Amino acid sequence: MAKRLLDRILVVDVEATCWDGPVPEGQANDIIEIGIAVLDVATAERVDRRGIIVRPERSSVSPFCTELTTLTQEDVDAGISFAEACAILRTEYRAHERVWASWGEYDRQQFERQCAALGVPYPFGTRHLNAKTLYSLARALPREPGMAGALADAGLPLEGTHHRGVDDAWNIAALLGGLLAAGRS
Ligand code: AMP
Ligand code: MG
């Protein structure tokens, strides 16, 4: 059984190929960016951030996807493979031993689907934290908000570019850090 590390939370936000409508015949949603923000548990501060650009293997970047994420086909052509990116999560971030968090269940499900489809080992352990549900419960909100809505609710700025994985992860980590800090006051 993997060691349990409670020192840091890995906040992860992925961007994936997408279309203004259904997935085109013969293509599938591929992760094109893995945003990682590292939240130090003792201080509730964000201590590291990184965006890993991933080359899509089953799809290409549509104009709609570039509009949403700012990422172009040229950008992702320069990325690394999904298998290499997952290996980085394990070796550099010890993702299989740490708690990881994302906004909702989409990111976890996309990792699960893509790892299964491509035969890549799932890089995380079993302890995924749905930051959206946690935030909504802690704030007693009637509905689960999007990330931008939650930042507005918390009175925090949206730093960087929304729908870029690295910036989304950084902002989600701020929301989660706020919850950690509030739990100790
Ligand atoms: P986000 O973390 O909100 O930037 O979204 C993650 C991924 O979900 C994006 O990279 C897209 O693949 C997909 N997505 C988000 N919003 C939309 C949308 N309005 N239409 C289609 N796909 C979307
Ligand atoms: Mg995002």
UniProtKB/TrEMBL annotation:
Gene3D superfamilies with a match to the protein in the record: Ribonuclease H-like superfamily/Ribonuclease H
Keywords: Exonuclease, Hydrolase, Nuclease
Keyword Nuclease attributed: yes
Protein's UniProt keywords contain Hydrolase: yes
Superkingdom as given in the UniProt entry: Bacteria
Sample GO molecular function, one term: nucleic acid binding
SMART domains hit by this protein: EXOIII
Every Exonuclease domain range: 8-185
InterPro entries cross-referenced by the UniProt entry: 3-5_Exoribonuclease, ERI-1_3'hExo-like, Ribonucl_H, RNaseH-like_sf, RNaseH_sf
Record's protein name: Exonuclease domain-containing protein
